[in-house]
Design a protein that fits this description.
Largest interface: A-B, 28 and 26 residues
Distance between the termini of chain B: 40 Å
Number of strands of chain B: 11
Oligomer: heterodimer
Largest sheet of chain A: 7 strands, mixed
Number of strands of chain A: 11
Order of helices and strands of chain A: EEEEEEEEEEE
Shape of chain B: globular
Number of helices of chain A: 0
Strand content of chain B: over 45%
Low-confidence stretches of chain B: none
Strand content of chain A: over 45%
Structural class of chain A: mainly beta
Chain lengths: 112, 112
């Protein structure tokens, strides 16, 4: 089955700690995205990558970092600089620009 | 100009009724308008999408109506069922870009 796999489903962060969220896709899509979802708000774009070894900041990139070393993988690191990291994080992919985006089932990050 | 305004914020419909969710945009360069359905604890799933060359698109019980002159588009769910209870998001994007602009979501509850 083709799709997007996010892990872990739940993650807890201690103060001053960096945590990394995993996103893997087997759809052979070039583009991948990270969104943050807070209650009562729409999805906000953190970072996106059009192609391997390339990525751009979205609307709320501060306190986050990404890498795109392989086409199928786009991990997101939530750094200690992100002061309000509690949220639902969603990874998505698409064939290219302006095309349907397909989402994983998310990682819920909480602060200990 | 990059906003997509979605209404209502929440909606309660009787089983068998019609659910209508509306979105409005300002940027006339938008040319792709998807709707997503999200169940609690899951990622959004693409429901149906439309491009401005058509005024209506129907897939099963779901219909998108598109009014280019009014810069509005809406989702109609016919014969609404309790299983349709979810949060619905509209979005917009434009040629050559990777960014979706999402609405803030509508929480739909269909009463049995």
């Amino acid at each position: 089955d083709g799709g997007i796999t996010q892990s872990p489903k739940y993650l807890f962060r201690k103060e001053g700690q960096n945590v990394t969220l995993s996103c893997e896709q087997n759809l052979n899509h070039d583009a991948m995205y990270w969104y943050r979802q807070d209650p009562g708000q729409g999805l906000r774009l953190i970072y996106y990558s059009q192609i391997v070894n390339d990525f751009q900041k979205g609307d709320i990139a501060e306190g986050y970092s990404v890498s795109r070393e392989k086409k199928e993988s786009f991990p997101l690191t939530v750094t200690s600089a992100q002061k309000n990291p509690t949220a639902f994080y969603l990874c998505a992919s698409s064939v290219t620009s302006n095309q349907p985006q397909h989402f994983g089932d998310g990682t819920r990050l909480s602060i200990l | 100009q990059q906003q997509v305004k979605q209404s209502p914020q929440s909606l309660i419909v009787q089983k068998g009724g019609i659910s209508i969710i509306n979105c409005a945009y300002e940027n006339t360069a938008f040319d792709y308008f998807p709707w997503y359905q999200q169940f609690p604890g899951k990622g959004p799933a693409l429901l149906i999408a439309i491009r401005p060359d058509v005024s209506e698109k129907k897939e099963g019980r779901f219909t998108i109506s598109f009014n280019k002159s009014a810069k509005q588009f809406s989702l109609h769910i016919m014969d609404s069922q309790p299983g349709d209870s979810a949060t619905y998001f509209c979005a917009a994007s434009m040629e050559g870009t990777y960014k979706y602009i999402f609405g803030t979501g509508t929480r739909l509850k269909v009463l049995a």
